[in-house]
Amino acid sequence: MEGAEAIRRARKQRRGNVIGAAAKESGLPYPTRLNFYDKPPTQEVSLEEFEQWAIDRLRVLGEIETCLFRNNTPAEIDATLKRLLDKYLPLASNHSVPEAERSNPKRFAGLTAERRKDHYSHFILRLAFARSEDLRRRFTRVETILFRHRFSTDDTRERHEFMSALELDSQVVGEGEKAQYAEQLKAVLALGARLPPEKTRAQFDAESYVKVEWDRVADLVESRRVFIRGGMAYVPSGALVSLVLAEFSKKLDQSLIATARLLPRLDEDDRLIPILNHLSKGFSAPEYNSSAAPTTLSGEAITAGQIDGLKTHFPLCMRNLHSSLRRDKHLRHFGRLQYGLFLKGIGLSIDEALVFWRQAFSKFTDEQFNKEYRYNIRHSYGLQGAGRNYSPYSCQQILMDHPPGTGDAHGCPFRHFSVDNLMLAMESQMGIGNEEKSVQSGVKQDVAARKYHLACNRVFEHLHERELKREKDGGGGSSMRETIVHPNEWFDRSWNLKNPGSAKKGRVKQEVKEEDTAMT
Amino acid sequence: MAPHSTTDNDGDDVMQDTDAMQVDDTPDAPAVKSEPAVKSEPAVKDELEGMFDDDDDLMIDDEANDFKNGFGKTSTAPISDILSASPSDPEVMLQFYSRLFPWRQLFRWLNHSEVPSTDFANREFAFTLHNEAYLRYQCYPTFETLRRDVLKLNPSRFEIGPVYSARPRDRKQVPKGSFKPLEKELVFDIDLTDYDEIRTCCSKTSICIKCWQFVTMAIKVIDVALRDDFGFQHIMWVYSGRRGAHAWVCDRKARKLDDGKRRAIAAYLEVVRGSSQSGKKVNVDRPLHPHIQRSFDILVKDFAKNILEDQDPFRTEKQFDRLIQLLPDTTFKSALREKWSSTIDRSSSDKWQDIDRLAKSSVSKTLNAKQLLDHKQDVILEYTYPRLDAEVSKHLNHLLKSPFVVHPGTGKVCVPIDPAKAEDFNPDDVPTVLQLLKEIDQWRTSVKEEGEGATAQARVPDIDKTSLKPYHDFFGRFVQRLLNAERQAVEKPKAEQAVKIKKEEDLEF
């Protein structure tokens, strides 16, 4: 009977999670750098940590989404992430601690703290982003990219340990089977690589394969980058990342849905819910940080009457809205919102805004205006209703949210206009006509590649060619550090380029602006 | 013996399929003697006429063979009467549904078991009525109820959708969001209209055996990919009734695929891409992916006959211009154009050979032989590789016309195609509904003439009297194989579990 007991124990251990077993052996809560986040945290954290960790992770995730929106390549994203992660969410590998000292929990404390923060912040954000399908989808997407980045930068041996702990349920392809399908496997390996045959052969000989059910690597199947036979995909070890990623996003999807179901039962007081709400709102596009930007003109508030004159500093979407407003004496809801918030961002106060819109909507009576629109405008300044102080829309919001329908003038012309109409708009709004062939064809290319922000930036560079050159010659060049991803950024840079020296005066208004953002 | 007495069999199962749906007013097929009692006077006269009439044409107009439809309403129109009607005539369809449609097999096919389950009960059916009204979200617990409703509504055709999480009729009663499609066969749709830019023999809705070869080639390529690569076994190909074919992949695993995985398969199989405005439509990496290599090896054998000879697709100037566009090297291209412009009448086969001949004559120094070979392979693929309507395959909740319904335009029955004998299939041989009803008539006459016993004849189901019989049998065998596999899938885990438990017991003691 004793023997039976031992067997039972052994079986129990075998069934147990390997990570758990490893952790037990080394006595560490986080034996590997990578985390599949399959266990929720159980220890206590302070409210400050709760919020700070979440915000730090959110910065990283927000940046990933911006990269996606800019259509950055994986290499570009990796470069951006590296910088950002070091600052906000560092994760060092085990070999940063000398091997001999790894068993000493004290030497490992630094790593454990990093991993703990990574672990906890992930689960906090799960709570914040489980609530709607859209948030869940976006969260899974950026988390998967973050995971991919870490996975691909991981130490080879540690990655191997991590993978074997995952138990991905794959079979190793034996030499006999590998030889049987040698021809097909080689063809897939060489696919598009344009390698000479001997190189391919060498690579093939060195390659090891695992077999998994084809739908576990559906993305590889979809693009025909894997050999499949009898429902099994033959995945080279190099392509395993795709398998792990598929697993990662699948698990995350499932747990987010589970979390969403449990959210109402959280029955939380007023400590966490406000933080969570705030977090999920923050996960929308990099907001235009008006406090950091030099504000209006010469530091004085702009008036309704100045808007027409300032139009030359507007990006195409805003010029288009402005022209529509002047032509129709009206803008529909999202047009008013997009344009109104932009004007607010450049420094139009609520009083001036009411004057501006009242004058613009000249075909309406006072009564109509007060009834239909006044509330709306005050609302967008946070003076009515929920008291939320709305920020100007970023390019991403303009591109992604509320695609314009018939009769709408909002949206991004580069995305929402047909190419012909876009060319017409560029000519009528910005004077970029047929004589500027290179700009036109550049814009067409960008638009075809769905890189709308690049098209817009190209137009910006063209319109400010002289000023940019002067600035560069003068040793400045600060305003073209990055691509513009916000209409108000366009305005500020344009204004500063055309009025050098006035930027500093704008700082006067900074304090007021800080208060504004604090309200959001 | 009366030529037009009807039995109550609908052909697929004589013993079990007896419900209130009898089409005949006489449950047992009437023998000659009993007939005058049932029949009106002219019928007897016509019967005599028919007996001695050597004319093959049995469409005797004033035949009056009373029969009732499923609701006891007496219909006075006899088969022969409606044989002159259009194939989509409601009366014809009613006859077809009540006498020839394989209800029971359809049920077994979709139910995956003999015992009624939610696989069938939660399955959506959608009917197109004769007034073109479209009824979605119909569902039935058993095939009898489905059959009864079809006979009542008498749709011109009907489609099959997914199995939902609840009964489709109850979709508004269940909590919002909990009514969703769970599974459906993985389906493919090949339609010859997608080949219009490369087929020269016919266009639009018309087809002939020459352009049918596109479908044949498609079946060969797709079928082997689904079986060998994805490991599916239960793939049923069905003639779509006019100019295409459908594939139903019925394996349990295929039925459970989500949209993303369906999309992956569709993309894996898709090689010809682009609209009529795009240039070269086949752009595949080299070396060829094993699937494309295998497809190419299959297709290249048919290229000379099916394409070059039968389609002759490079005959006119516009046509060979298209071919030249697809080839590499400007000098080489202009040499080809020059040659063919002066000899426009050369056949496509000759022109195809000209490419190699001209290449050998080293007319262009920059021409890369490997590149030319690759481009020629791409041309072959562009003119032969299956063109799938990918949207149909990508979505779990896409509806597809049921097998064995009648195509309203052609009257042809959507019969299964044996993929192992895809090359033998000729859409011209597919029986039309009118032809089938006529065969029932003729069968009686011939039996009568041979003087066989009336009792023996009475038990013969209608389906056995027609040329639809082999298709029925094929379908039946397919369904049986599927059911066997389903049973095994259910039994296997149980057996494994049993073994496991046994082993554990062994270990314990």
Automatic annotation (TrEMBL), chain A:
Keywords: 4Fe-4S, DNA replication, DNA-binding, Iron, Iron-sulfur, Metal-binding, Primosome
Keyword check for Iron-sulfur: yes
Positions of the UniProt region annotated as Disordered: 492-520
InterPro entries: DNA_primase_C, DNA_primase_lsu_euk, DNA_primase_lsu_euk/arc
Top-level taxon in the UniProt lineage: Eukaryota
Basic and acidic residues biased stretches: 508-520
Gene Ontology molecular-function annotations: 4 iron, 4 sulfur cluster binding; DNA binding; metal ion binding
GO cellular component: alpha DNA polymerase:primase complex
CDD domains cross-referenced by the UniProt entry: PriL_PriS_Eukaryotic
All residue ranges annotated as the DNA primase large subunit C-terminal domain in the record: 311-491
Cofactor note: Binds 1 [4Fe-4S] cluster.
Example GO BP: DNA replication, synthesis of primer
Residues annotated to bind [4Fe-4S] cluster: C317, C395, C412, C456
Cofactors (names): [4Fe-4S] cluster
Similarity comment text for this entry: Belongs to the eukaryotic-type primase large subunit family.
Protein function: DNA primase is the polymerase that synthesizes small RNA primers for the Okazaki fragments made during discontinuous DNA replication.
Protein name: DNA primase large subunit
Origin species: Drechslerella dactyloides
Lineage: Eukaryota, Fungi, Dikarya, Ascomycota, Pezizomycotina
TrEMBL record, chain B:
Superkingdom as given in the UniProt entry: Eukaryota
GO biological process: DNA replication, synthesis of primer
Gene3D superfamilies, sorted: DNA primase, PRIM domain
Region annotation Disordered: where it falls in the sequence: 1-46
Enzyme class of the recorded protein, top EC level: transferase
Gene Ontology CC terms, in alphabetical order: alpha DNA polymerase:primase complex
EC number from the UniProt entry: 2.7.7.-
The UniProt record lists the keyword Transferase: yes
Alphabetical UniProt keywords: DNA replication, DNA-directed RNA polymerase, Metal-binding, Nucleotidyltransferase, Primosome, Transcription, Transferase
A GO term for molecular function: DNA-directed RNA polymerase activity
InterPro entries: DNA_primase_S, DNA_primase_ssu_euk/arc
Pfam families cross-referenced by the UniProt entry: DNA_primase_S (PF01896)
Listed transmembrane segments: none
Basic and acidic residues: bias regions: 36-46
Family: Belongs to the eukaryotic-type primase small subunit family.
Protein name: DNA primase
Source lineage: Eukaryota, Fungi, Dikarya, Ascomycota, Pezizomycotina
